[in-house]
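Hydrogenase nickel incorporation protein HypB
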Amino acid sequence: MHQTFDAALGINLLHANQKGAEHNRAHFDKWGITCFNVMSSPGAGKTVLLEQTLAALKDELKIAVIEGDMTTELDADRLRQYGVPVFAINTGRSCHLDSKMVAGGIHQLEHQYNPSDFDLVLVENVGNLVCPAEFEVGEHAKIALLSITEGEDKPLKYPVMFQEADCLLITKMDLAPYLEVDINRIAANVRQMNPYATIIPVSAKTGEGLDVWFDWVKSQVASQNQPLLDAAISSR
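Predicted structure tokens:
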């Protein structure tokens, strides 16, 4: 069966993007940087989560942010207040970051700083539950956020995002007493799509679950850097 032109074009775009993602990841690996791709629908709480993460970990980890937004630098400006490098990428009409866009942020990091000094790069993707999960950017882990205000069925209706997630944060838990939402049902629906993702309920307002999230971040950075430490020790 012959592929339609649109199907073939989509495959070619994903293939080209994957090559770029592998190139980006090679840079991160060379520098000893762990990279997270943070994804969600608009308003699920990506930026406030990053604010909390920077406030808690910026003195313990050297962090930079690549901030994707369609037209503004509003979120980038919020994150710059924490004294970390933030590289804004405006995507125009594109509903996601791709590996070439993120490469632009990586090149800015390389030209303005010594990238080997950094431990973690957080990529905040454009708010969208579909496209960001299909286009890798060179990340070592995908982080998905799902607000409890979005409903229990989102993992079933938008499966790719949840199938690809290494860690799922169920956000805005402080609103749970006011909503008819079953957190266990959300988790069960996620498990249908992905039995292996770490699931962490959090609230940026009350602080619920944030320590668990911070510990997960630190453990991922440590595990990503362990091969480099082992290689350095063995070369002595």
